[in-house]
Amino acid sequence: MHQLTGLLATNFGSPSGVTTQDHYTRELWRLSGYFSVPIGLIVLGLITFAIVRYRHRPGEDRKPAQFQYHIPIEATYTIIPLVIVAVIFGVMYNAENHVTKVSAKPSVAITVDGFQWGWRFVYPNGHVQIGTGDYNNINNNNDLPVLVMPSNETVQLHVVSLDVVHTFYVKEFLFNRDLIPGINNTFDVNVTKPGLYPGQCNNICGEYHAYMRFLVDVMTPTQYAAWYANQPACSVTTAGVPGIQNGSCAAINAGADFTGYTQAPKG
Question: Quick one: which H or E segment has residue 114?
Answer without folding.
Answer: strand 108-115
